[in-house]
Design goal:
This protein has 278 residues and is of the alpha+beta class. It has helices spanning 17-29, 35-44, 80-85, 92-98, 108-111, 120-129, 168-181, 194-201, 203-206, 214-225, 229-236, 240-254, 259-274, and strands at residues 51-57, 64-70, 104-107, 133-141, 144-152. 46% of the residues lie in helices and 13% in strands.
Length: 278
């Protein structure tokens, strides 16, 4: 629809100036080592996230971490080594990528299983590493996906993403341009050979396989990821009573009595994989 009158010269234009300045700086830094700090400053003009992790994902491979930032505890021990050791296998976003999640701005609640916040993974890793809430900005990058995780120790307001949504086409475009201008991981951090990640990548698939049937192993994985009985039944297209039966068999065969003990067994499996041969 055409404008019916000239813009009001008295209208204030000062509010967007910090955003425009941050966008200009990010654009200038595109393709350089200064890009990520500038890009995060841009995002923080609209979203009060406290930590960020940039990772590169390819199907059936372990993630490749590009960079991380923590504005609350910059000297704290990085959670990335535990993530790459195999915790990523229980990450709702990693599971979503494996299931075909595409480019865009996605919130944790959009991809997490219904009991995710009751899992030991959430209590013992995610809450400390990421926080209580997370957005991920995702774009295509050289045959994979480049993901920018934005974590917060508090739940984001319901309207937290509203300011970013109009910017989304530009945000994805500049990420794509940066990734095409230089390796997404940066000159100082080349990606590991996929072969090095194979034992860790397969840890969840191999979990309990010597004792469990294929369906029981699938139920064990879904329990670890935070799916309720009904969610598992829906995903597996079986009744909740059948899921209960599989769960009983899983616990009996693995000699555990709860999801917490199952998680402890899984983390022990990760430790075994990490100490095994390359």
């Amino acid at each position: 629809m055409p404008f019916s009158r000239e813009p009001d010269a008295s209208a204030s234009c000062t509010a967007p100036i910090p955003l425009f300045e941050a966008a200009a700086q990010a654009t200038r830094c595109c393709g350089s080592v200064d890009f990520w700090p500038a890009f995060f400053r841009l995002l923080r003009t609209h979203l009060a996230f406290e930590n960020a992790l940039v990772a590169w994902y390819f199907p059936r491979q372990a993630p490749m971490v590009v960079t991380e930032f923590d504005w609350v505890a910059p000297g704290a021990e990085s959670p990335v080594p535990r993530y790459l050791q195999g915790m990523y296998r229980l990450d709702p976003f990693f599971q979503a990528f494996e299931n075909g999640l595409g480019p865009g701005l996605h919130r944790l609640s959009d991809v997490a299983p219904d009991r995710f916040r009751q899992t030991d993974y959430y209590a013992n890793y995610f809450r400390e590493a990421v926080g209580q809430d997370e957005f991920q900005l995702v774009c295509p990058a050289d045959g994979g996906l480049l993901s920018v995780s934005l974590g917060s120790s508090q739940h984001y307001p319901a309207a937290a993403s509203h300011a970013l949504i109009p910017m989304l086409p530009w945000l994805i475009a500049i990420l794509e341009r940066h990734a095409s201008g230089c390796p997404p991981w940066g000159e100082a951090q080349p990606p590991a050979s996929p072969a090095h990640a194979t034992p860790l990548r397969d840890a969840l698939e191999r979990f309990g396989q010597q004792l469990l049937s294929p369906r029981e192993a699938e139920v064990a994985r879904l329990i670890l990821q935070g799916h309720s009985l009904q969610s598992m039944a829906n995903r597996l297209h079986i009744s909740s009573e059948t899921v209960k039966s599989h769960r009983r068999h899983v616990y009996a065969k693995l000699d555990v009595r709860s999801p917490s003990e199952l998680f402890s067994l899984f983390t022990a499996e990760l430790g075994s994989a990490a100490s095994g041969p390359d």
